[in-house]
UniProtKB/TrEMBL annotation:
Coiled coil among keywords: yes
Subunit structure: Microtubule inner protein component of sperm flagellar doublet microtubules.
GO cellular component: axoneme; microtubule cytoskeleton; nucleus
Coiled-coil spans in chain: 31-83, 349-383
UniProt keyword terms in alphabetical order: Cell projection, Cilium, Coiled coil, Cytoplasm, Cytoskeleton, Flagellum
Localization of this protein: Cytoplasm, Cytoskeleton, Cilium axoneme; Cytoplasm, Cytoskeleton, Flagellum axoneme
Protein name in UniProt: Tektin
A Pfam family hit: Tektin
InterPro entries assigned: Tektin-like, Tektins
Length: 403
């Protein structure tokens, strides 16, 4: 109990004096350090504020530069998109021209083939491999060649349209991304330190694996622009080619069509001339036949007319053969009667009948010639019907258009 109530130890006045001095020194030191810290903090705050403002200003400038860069490429892509879209639309009209031209070739080819088939029905000597047939065969070959060429060109055009549309798709996707990026950067440019919806994001500085370098970014759009330019140039070249093909094929078909038509006109004229000559010959043969028939009738009448004199002479001879005895004399009368009978018989047998036989032979020849001419005229009429009526009238519907 006595220990608990023991008084605390007492310090020496010198110790008290030292303690006071130490408190003063410590306080002055602490104050000095605090003042230095305050000064350093102010300097640091000012430096950091300036740095932050400068950095934020630089970031704003970079954002603005990026926006301008995106706008530039967006404009470039827009221009290329507008160009290739227009080019594709024009190429589609060329595709329609090709399709119409290809379709228009079918009817002339069918008509040419029908003409060749119809002309197989020509008869006799008229079934000839003439100039018309040669030109028709050539026309069919020209049309088949044109159809094949237009078909290949149409396939090439479809492929070019597909490539154009692929380039359009790439440009549109790139533009869509550029538009989104521009909207985001516009939003970023609008942000200030006082914007209400700014916030911390722990993952903001994390770089994802799908980030691309600025060079790759430029290359991507540049490749899309170059592809669009390439396909547009290819499309322009193809359109020039199509124009040339359509013009040349139309000229070739029109020229060959005219060649066939001229050949038909010439051939019809030749056949008509031949038919006219045959009809003239037929008329001549028929006239000759009538003359020969009259001649035969005259010959027959002459033979009949000689029967009376022959009978008279022979009756006289027979009667004079009954003269009696010495009166049965071979006198001048007898001699003349025998001569008359012989002369009449000779004229009838050797001249009139032989001439009649020859005349009848000639008449048969004339009849055969008449039949042959009539058959040949029918052949020519059949040829004219095939060429002038069936073929030429059918060809009137053939018209070669420029598409």
């Amino acid at each position: 109990m006595a220990r608990l109530l023991q008084a605390p130890p007492k310090f020496h006045p010198s110790e008290w004096d030292i303690a006071n001095k130490m408190q003063c020194a410590s306080t002055e030191s602490q104050k000095s350090r605090s003042e230095r810290m305050i000064a350093e903090s102010r300097r640091l705050l000012d430096e950091i504020e300036k740095t932050t403002q400068k950095t934020q200003s630089d970031a704003n400038k970079k954002i603005e530069q990026r926006r301008e860069e995106v706008k530039f490429w967006k404009q470039e892509l827009d221009n290329k998109l507008e160009q290739i879209v227009h080019e594709t639309e024009v190429l589609l009209t060329f595709k329609t021209r090709l399709e119409k031209s290809l379709e228009s070739c079918k009817e002339p080819l069918i008509i040419a083939q029908k003409c060749l088939l119809n002309r197989q029905r020509r008869a006799g000597i008229d079934l000839v491999h003439d100039e018309v047939e040669q030109e028709l065969v050539k026309e069919a070959e020209v049309l088949q060649g044109v159809i094949a060429l237009l078909g290949r060109t149409l396939e090439q055009t479809n492929e070019q349209i597909r490539l154009n549309r692929s380039a359009i798709y790439n440009l549109e996707m790139d533009l869509k991304d550029k538009f989104t990026a521009l909207m985001i950067d516009d939003y970023c440019a609008s942000l200030t330190n006082n914007t209400p919806d700014i916030r911390y994001d722990d993952n903001a500085v994390k770089i994802e694996g799908n980030f691309v370098s600025p060079e790759d970014w430029i290359d991507f759009s540049n490749i899309n622009v170059e592809k669009a330019d390439k396909q547009r140039n290819n499309s322009l070249a193809l359109r020039a080619l199509i124009d040339g093909i359509l013009s040349q094929t139309a000229n070739d078909m029109r020229k060959q069509c005219e060649m066939v038509n001229v050949a038909f006109i010439n051939r019809v004229k030749e056949v008509k001339d031949a038919k006219h000559k045959l009809e003239t010959l037929l008329a001549m043969v028929m006239d000759e036949t009538a003359s020969q028939e009259k001649n035969i009738a005259a010959l027959k009448k002459a033979i009949t007319d000689k029967e009376g004199p022959a009978k008279v002479a022979q009756t006289r001879l027979e009667a004079r053969s009954h003269r009696p005895n010495v009166e049965l004399c071979y006198d001048t009368v007898q001699y003349k009667l025998i001569s008359e009978v012989q002369e009449i018989t000779k004229n009838i047998q050797r001249q009139l009948k032989d001439t009649l036989a020859q005349a009848e032979t000639e008449l048969k020849g004339l009849n055969r010639r008449q039949l042959s001419l009539e058959e040949e005229i029918q052949v020519k009429e059949n040829t004219l019907y095939i060429d002038e009526v069936l073929c030429m009238q059918m060809r009137e519907s053939v018209y070669i258009n420029n598409f």
